[in-house]
Amino acid sequence: MTATNPLLQAFDLPPYSAIRPEHVEPAVDQILADNRTAIAAILEHQGSAPDWSGLVLALDELNARLGRAWSPVSHLNAVCNSAELRAAYEACLPKLSAYYTELGQNRALYQAWHALADSPAAAAFDQAQQTILKHTLRDFHLSGIDLPEAEQQRYGAIQMKLSELCSQFSNQVLDATQAWTKQIGDEAALAGLPDSAKAQMQQAAQAKGLDGWLVTLEFPSYYAVMTYADDRALREELHTAYATRASDQGPNAGQHDNGPLMAEILDLRQELAKLLGFAHYAELSLATKMAESTEQVLGFLRDLAVRGKPFAEQDLAELRAFAAERGVNDLSSWDVGYFSEKLRHQRYEISQEQVRAWFPIDKVLSGLFAIVERLYGIQIAELSDFDTWHPDVRLFEIRENGAHVGRFFFDLYARANKRGGAWMDGARDHWRNSAGERISPVANLVCNFTPAVNGRPALLTHDEVTTLFHEFGHGLHHLLTRVDYAGVSGINGVAWDAVELPSQFMENWCWEPEGLALISGHFESGEPLPQALLDKMLAAKNFQSGLMLLRQLEFSLFDFELHATHGDGRSVLEVLQAIRDEVSVMQPPAWNRFANSFSHIFAGGYAAGYYSYKWAEVLSADAFSKFEEEGVLNPATGRAFREAILARGGSLEPMQLFVDFRGREPSIDALLRHSGLTEEVAA
């Protein structure tokens, strides 16, 4: 099997087209067995006086081999999901969980790391090496190294079960999203929708051999109906299906229901935290984050809620009055997007759909690259002749002064069997191996934009442009690292509540005239974005920012409260309702089951960490204010940001990196100003 299994071969970029479901489990089994044998040999050879190369770099080599096989499998499961691949992927999850738990509870390995940290040689280690030692010893404790054997076994069983449940949660959201469609035969039912959205729906129908138009719960389709459909009943029907996915409510009630999974996941997380001596899972979550206590996080979120609520109430009052003038006196959840877009258009004479024509994908990409090339002194070029998982995928290379830095894949468009949302996945880390060879980084950047239709290029809304910049910020953090140790290179070792800093930071250029001049041009004429349209966009930037802030705070407080109070007798729905009663200005219908598809916290890395978005936004807004002071495309400021933040990965605490760049600790003022949430801006 080794000879024919592509996952067991050496390769530069993954041979995606050659990877089959039947390759996955044998490859993982082989590598895990090889790694266990190798770890035993490392410990025997290193004895009681380990050195960096013999212990750390040797373990990094083993991790890299496992990652080289597992990363493409995990990626394919997200972007080309099939029943066979899903089964192979899930068969490996308990094996990988058991392996990592075993490493974390390997006392001989722990003692070897301890001996290295206490050795005379460690005094001469650089900052990155010191951080790796500190993080590794911390992670041993968080893996249960101090627990009695029976409790260690229980820890391992919990981790294995959580791995399975979180994957199942994600699968059921994907399945529930694809389980509902609506075929429409009369175009009149789609009145109000732009031609581009109708063309995409017609294409979706044709792909399934159907006549007419197919409305789905994939985001481009859902967004188009909720924003533009004049048919209120259609909006209600679609919103009901979307807001009840994977739940006990709605048109597919009980199908793929994530309710029982959420309860089990929360029970197991709470048990895990208690095993390790924490009061609750939120406290355990903060053990590896920038925030220092649950009180600090909740205080930060509630302070923002108090500041933002008057603005949100004003936003909603204006929206209700606007809808009432148009005959809708009972504004409901399925009306908010529709009337908001109408109000935005009336007030600013601008809409998301109107600006699409100015953001064809290739113009946006060339402008994005021009911005980062100027700021960071790099060059980006597209590559051809590479193996891929879908024809739409593109590959690019970053070079600096002629030297190769790294590569990244773009998979930008929504399609069936692809996970929703947008994300960056570090496909390969930058590091130097034990032979001193530089391994260059690779990133996967994934979005779900509306694809090209009717011979036109893909045209992005400004919101989609912002999403693209956000994910590219994550990609740059991964790709532009100068740290040569895998454990803290790129985003590795970065506290989760600081990891959004580079991504949210990049979004700022989507609003700057200098940035917009580079990323916009009419898809037919190439003409730059007219000044009048730019002025309208900037005027509308903070439209309903109060409502948007409270929505994010609702998610953040719900997540954190859920993990901090689990076991107090309240259900998930009751916790969510209590948060809504506290911070929301508009209540959704009782049948809303938002939590059942909240993959960030039940299937992603954001459990008791969703607050990270707002936490890091304080950092990103304040960091960008230095560019506002010195010039938004100032190469000197760009290089300073690169060297202080992007280049140093997780090698230093995030607060130290921020202070090194900004010259002081962060202030919330820039965030409030950028969001229009200060009295002077509001006035």
Automatic annotation (TrEMBL):
Catalyzed reactions: Hydrolysis of oligopeptides, with broad specificity. Gly or Ala commonly occur as P1 or P1' residues, but more distant residues are also important, as is shown by the fact that Z-Gly-Pro-Gly-|-Gly-Pro-Ala is cleaved, but not Z-(Gly)(5)
Enzyme class: hydrolase
A GO biological process held by the record: proteolysis
Annotated Peptidase M3A/M3B catalytic domain residues: 225-676
Pfam families: Peptidase_M3, TOP_N
Cofactor mode of binding and number, as noted: Binds 1 zinc ion.
Any one cellular-component term (Gene Ontology): cytosol
Domain of life, source organism: Bacteria
Gene3D superfamilies xref list: Collagenase (Catalytic Domain), Neurolysin, domain 3
Annotated EC: 3.4.24.70
Domain Oligopeptidase A N-terminal, residue spans: 31-150
GO molecular function, one term: metalloendopeptidase activity
Cofactor: Zn(2+)
Keywords assigned by UniProt, alphabetized: Hydrolase, Metal-binding, Metalloprotease, Protease, Zinc
NCBIfam families assigned to the protein according to its UniProt record, in alphabetical order: PRK10911.1
Record family assignment: Belongs to the peptidase M3 family.
Name assigned to this protein: oligopeptidase A
Source species: Pseudomonas linyingensis
Phylogenetic classification of the source organism: Bacteria, Pseudomonadati, Pseudomonadota, Gammaproteobacteria, Pseudomonadales
